[in-house]
Amino acid sequence: MEQANETVQKKNLFSAIQPSGSITLGNYVGALRNFVLLHEQYNCLFCVADLHALTLRQDPAALRRNSASLIALYLACGLDPEKNIIYCQSHVPEHTELAWILNCFTYMGELSRMTQFKDKSQKHADNINAGLFTYPVLMAADILLYQTHVVPVGADQKQHLEICRDIAGRFNGIYGDVFTIPEGYISKTTARIMSLTDPTRKMSKSDAEDSYVAILDAPDVIRRKFKRAVTDSDAEIRYDPENKPGVSNLLSILSAVKGTTPQEEAQALAGQGYGALKEATAQAVIDTLSPIQARYQELIKDKEYINRVLQEGAEKAHAIAFRTLRKVYKKIGLYQV
Ligand code: TYM
Prior knowledge:
By secondary structure, the chain is mostly helical. It has 2 domains: 11-185 and 302-332, Rossmann fold (3-Layer(aba) Sandwich); 209-298, Tyrosyl-Transfer RNA Synthetase, CATH 1.10.240. Helices cover 56% and strands 7% of the residues. The chain has helices spanning 2-9, 25-38, 50-53, 60-76, 94-103, 108-112, 115-123, 130-144, 158-175, 219-227, 245-258, 262-268, 274-301, 303-332; strands at residues 12-17, 43-48, 85-88, 150-152, 183-185. A 3-stranded parallel beta sheet has the order 1-2-3. It has a two-stranded parallel ribbon with strand order 4-5. Helix 5 crosses helix 8, helix 10 runs antiparallel to helix 13 (274-301) and helix 11 (245-258) crosses helix 13 (274-301). The longest helix is centred in the C-terminal third of the chain and has 30 residues, at 303-332. The protein is globular, with a radius of gyration of 21 Å. The two termini are 39 Å apart. Bound molecules: ligand 1. Ligand 1 binds at residues 14-18, 26-27, 30-31, 49, 52, 139, 142-143, 151, 153-154, 156-157, 191-193, 202-203. Ligand 1 binds next to strand 1, helix 2 and helix 8.
């Protein structure tokens, strides 16, 4: 009886990752690791945001491969499809249906203030498509469909979460309490893992390969990338992101995968050179990723299992999403039969 009560009171958690290219250590430390830490406490939905990935040109075969690979990675990290809903965004049509409605409650002005839109437009000047502009509206639909309380993300998604809250608040202001207003879960020291080759920039899968560690990188590749990581010219191991971004980034990564704090790691390595910091970070990352990689290699071979997880996930997600969408349609006056 007690257990049933607990289930009823659990809050809802939603998050997603785009299946575009390699999933990085930034994705893992900034988001995926938190999914695993939180997944017992909440009713969770973990989504593969394949529709969001279309805002940049994708090779169709690679997109299909990357979507299955991301599902295998979710499972390999320890997310349990029996307890969580794990699915693909494009398998649940309510996402795009709600996105259209929310488009009509979102202003051009607020979308044009999004820094990710500005960055991506600059990077892909030949393909500034409307999807790139309305990207945050689809993301708001993802979150709001499931009456989400908590959204674990990295710092780069903070502005998108704010606009989601604004859209939900605006809608509720007109029609009553239709949507739960979500809160971000952004962990302080790992919200922004930086590039290994330029620690003033965010680690990103769209940059050069040496600038990021991919979750599926082999141990020798991980070691080599950390060995070449940019630090600074003094020799003190100290956590000070503003003045020592490279060293602090390594301390953030090291402490995140060990479950300690950057300050504790700095203290443990005090008096040693940067070589020791790089080696310790590489080793801790390899120790964390190796079992995940081994499970991943097993899972990715089992397409039948992956498809079953996706099918069941989509059915469960659809059942919740359908209820919210019906409510929205009714509130705004769409004729229902
Ligand atoms: P995406 O695929 O770019 O990144 C997935 C998650 O990883 C986080 N992240 C990082 N965290 C710390 N340091 C980094 N260097 C780093 N790089 C990436 C991101 O903040 C994100 O949490 N729009 C989203 C996907 C999405 C979504 C959603 C997320 C679609 N719908 C609804 C939450 C809720 C995105 O592009 O993430």
